Amino acid sequence: MSITPADSAGRGELLTPLSAIPVMGCRLDHVTLLRLDRIDGLAPGNKVFKLRANLVEARRRGVRRLVSFGGSWSNHLHALAAVAQAQGFESVGLVRGEEQETAMLADARQWGMRVVRLSRGEYRRRNEAAYLEDVARRYAPCLLVPEGGSNDAGARGCEEIAALVNQLAPQISRIVTAVGTGTTLAGILAGLGRPAEVVGVAALKGARDLEKRVQDALASRGGGFAPRWQILHDYHCGGFARVTPQLREFVEAFESVQGVPLEPVYTGKMLFAIHQLTLGGEWDRRPVLAIHTGGLQGRRGFDW
Ligand SMILES: *Cc1c(COP(=O)(O)O)cnc(C)c1O
Question: Which of 17, 53, 173, 216 could share a disulfide with 196, CB 3.0–4.6 Å?
Fold first, then answer.
């Protein structure tokens, strides 16, 4: 699966400068999108970056089966199934709860993923060492990838996003990305290698351990130069995958003015944060590079 601009969209096509037509009372023409959602493959976005170094690790270990965790709309499992099929791996998706069948799971199955349902109780143990040993034995020989692709290899893979940023928009020093586990943010920070202000917008409510997770990921990358960074915690709109009427109105207005698809779980909240901070005057109008991390398959889970 190609994830470099040379392989897929041309360089220019990965950058979308936003138009000056106001979105809900605010011009956003200081914002340029980095369109990871346009990167080639069945499951575009940030998740293929996180998986790439994991696949290298699987090959190094001579393992042909990838096993991971996720919800029934997981962008991560969706990408894992796609990448596994494209690169000749088997994949097993351990899916939370007895949630409904979804278009995501249908795609994943079509790409050969074996979907296994876990009870909510079992799913809760997904980060416990003893449980993971048990799972690794159950599917041996396999490479276990944590939920969301949030391991060191995942962060390493996301350094390539920083390389793209530096290649395509070296002059922009305010960079914004959505944050779930913080792996993508950590990779960008580790890979950027130049002074900048990097802002993460948390998609989860009250995820107060995120800063520490990012710090730990950076430390395990060797603790080299990292730009200034912070995570904003006020734009979760009620919690993970929750949508307020205001967020929905923003996403719909943004899409119709800018002609760029968003989804409300991550990219909608990130751009909503930029919109609110600009509208309220808390941010000046210096150039912003907003990373469109994809996730559009999940948009199918919202019936609007
Ligand atoms: C998973 C995901 C994120 C968050 O990435 P993390 O590395 O977990 O912080 C952001 N945007 C989209 C669209 C995602 O699918």
Answer: 173
Q: Give mean pLDDT in consecutive 10-residue pieces for the chain, a chain of 304 residues.
A: 46 90 98 95 93 96 97 97 97 90 97 97 96 98 97 96 98 98 97 97 96 94 88 97 97 98 98 98 98 97 90
Helices and strands in the chain, H and E counts: 10, 10
Contacts of residue 177, defined as CB under 8 A and 6 or more positions apart, other chains included, come to: 184, 185, 188, 198, 199, 200, 201, 270, 290, 291, 293
How many angstroms is it from 112 CA to the middle of ligand 1?
23
Preceding peptide of 141 cis, ω within 30°: yes
Is ligand 1 within 6 A of the CB of residue 41? no
Given a contact cutoff of 8 angstroms between Cβ atoms, the answer to whether 268 and 48 are in contact is: no
CA nearest 269: which of 236, 222, 231, 292? Answer: 236
Cα 5 to ligand 1 centroid, rounded to whole Å? 20
Strands (DSSP E) contained in the chain are 15-17, 31-35, 65-70, 90-96, 113-118, 143-145, 174-179, 197-202, 228-232, 288-292
- What sections of 61-200 are H helices per DSSP? 75-86, 103-110, 120-123, 129-138, 152-168, 183-192
C-alpha R_g of the chain: 19
**Is there an atom of ligand 1 within 6 Å of 182 CB?**
yes
Distance CA 160, CA 25 (A): 35
